[in-house]
Amino acid sequence: MSDKVLLDYGSGGRASQRLVSGLFLEHLGNEELDRLNDAAVFTLSGRTAMSTDSFTVDPIFFPGGDIGSLAVHGTVNDVAMMGAIPRYITCGYIIEEGLPMDDLERIVASMGEACRHAGVHVVSGDTKVVPRGAVDKIFINTTGVGEVIADPEPGGDRARPGDAVLISGTIGDHGLTVLGTREGLDFEAKVESDSAALNHLLVRLVQELPDVHVLRDPTRGGLATTLNEITVSSNVCCELVEDDLPVRPEVRGGCSLLGLDPLYLANEGKFICVVPEADAEKALAIMRADPLGTDARRIGTMTDANPGKVVLVTRLGGKRLLGMLEGEQLPRIC
Asked: What is the spatial distance between Cα 64 and Cα 194, in angstroms, rounded to a whole number?
């Protein structure tokens, strides 16, 4: 194959076949994908969760991850947030002519590793190559399906007054990392993305707790925006305690320097968990027993005081209303 992606690789002809067999199947291949049929055939029992997402992150490589692993993690996590075991994903690639073949192989290899770690199979895919300038390097779409094991399944409309609000770890890591890499910023301390597949931890959580009310990953718009979505859907108020919000010192320092608020920065390896008060400590113990949840903590409580609002109790004891993100704080963050 050429050392760069050519338009011929999207033609459907011999060049396309060489790309599929020599690169995609090498890293993503499995019994179903290797058949190269027009569609995949698989079996799921009971209720099914499905999610789709497109990834355009810039830059395509960043500390802690790349667009390939991110495309797997993002979709696997979305399916798992419904109390489901992710099983299969599809991948669609839109590639700019001229992308170095080494970069493409690095991305696909990263996807393969992420799939194996998450325990999912790529069963269908598509590749398009477009002329230079039509896209920026590479865009990836992934769709995931999984078997729902939680009954009832978590949902953004199921938070209730008195529920405990938990977070699985520190916030703002991914957003600040991507911004810093994109702009060539040199922070005093190393920052890196938290991109990770959360499904194994989430499966344990819903298996061991009878009724997890809400699971959400605070990606674009960050923690504050996602909590606003939950409070509106559930018609409750979320009261956060500022001193309890986990933010790494290097992230806090970088945000202070750039005038950013970590509450609104994207996360790609954290989740919000809303459970009845009686289950809060058990939920935290389950989360902290996993490497991806060691920094889990309680950050607030759902109340009926101001339905549809998120209120921050500040270090000085005052209260500040946290609205949804206005505009695009950081474009192309995922």
From this structure: 7
What is the spatial distance between Cα 185 and Cα 306, in angstroms, rounded to a whole number? 40
Q: Is residue 333 part of a domain?
A: no
For residue 233, the enclosing domain spans 164-321
Pairing label, strands 121-130, 65-66: unpaired
Same domain, 214 and 139: no
Which stretches of 70-148 are assigned E, i.e. beta strand? 84-96, 121-130, 138-148
Q: How far apart are CA 24 and CA 281, in angstroms?
A: 44
pLDDT of 24-72, one tens digit each? 999 999 999 999 999 999 888 899 999 999 999 999 999 999 999 999 9
Strand ranges, E, within 157-295? 164-167, 214-216, 237-241, 272-275
- Is the pLDDT assigned to residue 12 strictly greater than 90? no
Q: What is the pTM of this model?
A: 0.96
Question: For residue 166, what are the β-bridge partners?
Answer: 273, 298
Which backbone phi and psi does 139 adopt, to 5 degrees? -120, 145
Looking at the 3D structure of the chain, how many domains does it have? 2
Q: Residue 149 in contact with residue 205, Cβ under 8 Å?
A: no
Q: Give me the amino acid identity at 98.
A: G
Residues 284 and 178 both lie in one domain: yes
For 129, phi then psi, to 5°, come to: -115, 130
Determine contact, residues 213/160, Cβ cutoff 8 Å. Answer: yes
pLDDT band, residue 328 (cuts 50/70/90): low
Q: Which residues pair with residue 273 across a beta bridge? A: 166, 215
